[in-house]
Amino acid sequence: MSDVQCIILSVDGVQCKNTFIVTCRHCTVDFCVEHLLQHHQELERTQVQLQLLLNEMLERKSKLEVLEPPVEYEQNRSSLHAQLDHWNVKIGQLIDMNSDNWNQQKARLVTEINDMLAAQRNKLLVDTNDLDSLRKQLSQINNSIEQLTQVPKVLPTFAQIISKMENSELLQNNGN
């Protein structure tokens, strides 16, 4: 009888008792014949699923390679580019006409953005300080919990404390 055993464990965690052992060619794992058949069925199911996924992927790839954008998209794209160019020219004309006003508005917007960024930066610093404070408090709480868990579960009675005190006094008196 060989020392090689089937690797399958039952639901209860009991090792398979079958003695005729075969090694799987695919993964070089030892199984009994019954479990080897189950293993191969599972591998076949997995292989079929992978093949289906591969076929689906190849089908989608071929569909994507064939697709071309419809002509109407190109026409819409052209008209939208023309509209953007027209608006760009209009905005340029408005800026030239109101360059002082534009510069003032631009400066105001830049100032507002800088103020908003500064406020966010300050808020981030406050949040960081708050987090550091909370970390320190949590550390203190953890230390207190550790100290409390080290306290004996059964506290000595008053009589036991007095007895210990009397014993230590006797030891000190005998020592002197």
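Above is the first protein from milestone M3; the second protein from the same milestone is given next.
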Amino acid sequence: MEGGEPARRDPEAEGRLHAAVGFLVAAEDGDEAAEGLAEVGKACGACHRSLGVTWPYPASELPDPETRSFHVQAQNVLWEALVAPDGGRWTTVRGAIASSADLGTGQPERTASIRAAITSSTPEEAFGAFAASCASCHARAGTAPGAFAQPPFRK
């Protein structure tokens, strides 16, 4: 790079990222897409950790766990927990999800299993389970979840 540091690379992490993206692109349903997206985030985070990259943004704020916007913002914080080598985000979102009656969806019977999966799993498993639950619920409702309309990245 002219006038700066050369770009650092982790070829092994890049290979994992390419494999994860391939899996995501080939996904045939919402569950596979959610799993693929979780693997992409996991690969991002592994590379960031290996290179000592820090997350340049403050942690996203979580709204009241019983509001509609909670489940969308919780997914954003789960994504941050994957790509940022910062266990604080994971601890925060995991606790908020565990304490929420229905993840802000108004459907406690559908959110009990996702809450259980998130509170007893790794960040990538939790993100995959959360995103898969979004996809299946939104498919039943006939609405497009934001998670699959656009990636949960900060603009």
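Note on the second protein: Residues 146-155 have pLDDT under 50 and may be disordered.
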